[in-house]
Amino acid sequence: MSLTTPVCNFGWKAKTFKLVSTNNEMISLEDAMGPNGLLVMFICNHCPYVKAILPRLIHDTRELKTLGINTVAISSNDVINYPEDSFENMKKLTKEHDFPFDYCFDETQAVAKSYDAICTPDFFGFNNNYELQYRGRFDSTGRGELSDNNERDLFNAMKLIADSQKGPIDQIPSIGCSIKWKESATNP
């Protein structure tokens, strides 16, 4: 099921976490923060929306790192019903694409719930005071064929945050596959 994210709640404070990454390291919110901000993104392996943007996402996160914006990716999906999203498959995807960011496993789904994550991808752009400044789409192309006039919404927003610590006022929601909640979990 496709869902769209709510509008940005400017100033909302990032929630702490400590999750295992595909490098078998424990990554915290504080570890992930860059000198100019942090992009927290909820993604997964199997989502067609994520697969469609993955090469561009990797490119943009590498470029953002040079601007002092770090990135952490979190997968929170139910791996029983969606085995492609298992931790072992997360490790394979990380290695196959040489991710320039930590890819962490939210096995309990507690982090996704604390962020009110809705879908994959769901992007949360924070300034270096851990204040939310962006919650919107990746770009204007989305799952389609890359066009010459593609608007790099996420990249441009994070660049603005790096420069001014403020995100753009006008933001277009992200669209993606719903997070796959465990059957025993209460949906947010």
UniProtKB/TrEMBL annotation:
InterPro entries, per the entry: AhpC/TSA, PRX-like1, Thioredoxin-like_sf, Thioredoxin_domain
One matching Pfam family: AhpC-TSA
Entry GO MF terms: antioxidant activity; oxidoreductase activity
TM segment ranges: none
Domain Thioredoxin: 8-160
Superkingdom of source: Bacteria
Protein name (database record): Redoxin domain protein
